[in-house]
């Protein structure tokens, strides 16, 4: 099961690829964390280090971004050589050659937060859903769009809101205009109706006189009919234009038909029937008047200066005029009947007068409001007040001369003129109100129209200005951003200079950002200047160090070869000493046998006489063995001479090792000096140089030990040579003695006593030879131990020399890496121009 590995803090993972995605550089942090060898990654696709769970959508997104020559940033899941994985917040940027051409891409990875890792795991599980999913996070939504798109959206939204506000104001003013126009038309329509009601009321009064027998009123009735016909023509034209608007078209046409019908049958009706028909016609006109007031919006007008005028004009004055008309018609009919008049008609007149008085009181209240809220209504109020003053006079006239009298004393014409005068005043007030309302509504309509046109013009101008301002703002922002981005991208590509100026004289936040970016570029310029100097020195010093390490490595290899030769010579010396030791051991065994033989010979001297014949053969054999011993001793002496020569060779090897150690020590000192000059970059080199110095000192110390051992060995060899010479001399004496024994054996019979003495001498000589042989054996053993010590020391020297050689190879690789790093640093720094 794979385990997540966390990137240590302050660790940067980086690698470089060419345009095909092949890795050409890997830093040490990535090599250490991934567990791959550097050679396993170089030359491979960057996907080698990516987790196999990486969605193809991620690679497509990376490729798309890099194809646009833009940096890519995101979270990548990477794998290690052991099968584990780690998340890296990765930035992929193009890098360029000196001509500003893209030659590859740089991957830089850093540690990721827990939240980023959680989001990355969710994305890797279902990339299609996450990529196409809709987010309600406004930041994520805004981050998907470019600055120009955001500004266009904001300005467009403001333009839409401004347009909507302007359209709303236009619609409001249009509605006000249409409302004022409808009220104007309604006022004109009702004014025409008021004229018809006034003429119809006059016609009713004249017909009441005519039908009651006053033929003098017939001419005036005919004149009124002609006025009514003319007024109806105007009314019908208005009805054709506006009747459907106020939903009274058919009813208005019916009123005209009813008038025509009344005009035809009027002469055949009684006075009372004519009166009822006229009242019914006027009531229908009043209904139309109310419907027009409602449908035209007159009743809904909110302005105080017109509200009370409309109220008086539509709901009070017409009814007052109608009651006065009834008062005129009823009174005229009563007066025409004279003595035949019905007393009930006086009660009716009394009732009508009371109703008229109530209407006057109500209208007076409204007139006070008109005076208060309408400064232009003075003429209306004055006209009404005159009628209000005339009404008590008319009422007193009717009370005293009509109602209270048994037979009315007032003339018909006087009564008609008095009532008609008051009715005309009331209609005059209504016409004045209607005209003023028409003027006000016309003025309102014109103001609303002018205001709507002004709003339209101002809105259009504001939109044009806003669009122009939007263009200028976006252009100024985007031009600065594009220019700055272009300058920075050229600096990164190497085609621009670090001394480029980003200060455009802008005092907003972008200007502040550009100023600080300029300061940042100045700091980068200083760093690049220093790095350019350091990189050149580093490159040169690293090349010198590499050459020095190469020479040192070659010398160390030669030293290692020499040490191997010394080790081989020491092995040969050890083998020779081993042979000498074996020969001396064999000689010691022989001497023991000789001692035993001589002892037996001494013990068997008593039997010599009986074994003289065998003694001769034995003496010859002993002579032969002694001769072999002498030859062996001589061979041993020659071997010791060879050992002595080898020991001299060891001195030469030790001198060579001492010289190598001195040169190594001097080389380490020079390397330490060069590392100190390199500063922090040579710190690792200084450590290697210090270790080389220690190895050189250890080599010198071991060499001194070897030289001391060699000196001891040579002294031991000299001692052995002396002993062997003594042994050889002893063997010569032994041979001489054996020769004498042989001679004595020939004369044994005559010199038995002398033979016993010689035998004793032989025993003593053999004993001495045995002691000398033991001494030689001990010396050979010490020599063997010394040679083994020399061999071990040389093996130690060989091992140390090999370690030095291996370290020199590592040091050579390090020097090469420093050389490559210096060249890479110099290449990167030379990208920036100033």
TrEMBL record:
One of its GO terms (biological process) is signal transduction. The lineage of its organism: Bacteria, Pseudomonadati, Spirochaetota, Spirochaetia, Leptospirales. It comes from Leptospira bourretii. This is Methyl-accepting chemotaxis protein. PROSITE patterns: CHEMOTAXIS_TRANSDUC_2, PAS. GO terms for cellular component: membrane. Residues 534-798 form the Methyl-accepting transducer domain. It holds the Pfam family PAS_3. InterPro entries: MCPsignal_dom (IPR004089), PAS (IPR000014), PAS-like_dom_sf (IPR035965), PAS_fold_3 (IPR013655). Residues 18-69 form the PAS domain. Keywords: Membrane, Transducer, Transmembrane, Transmembrane helix. The chain crosses the membrane at residues 151-172, 450-474.
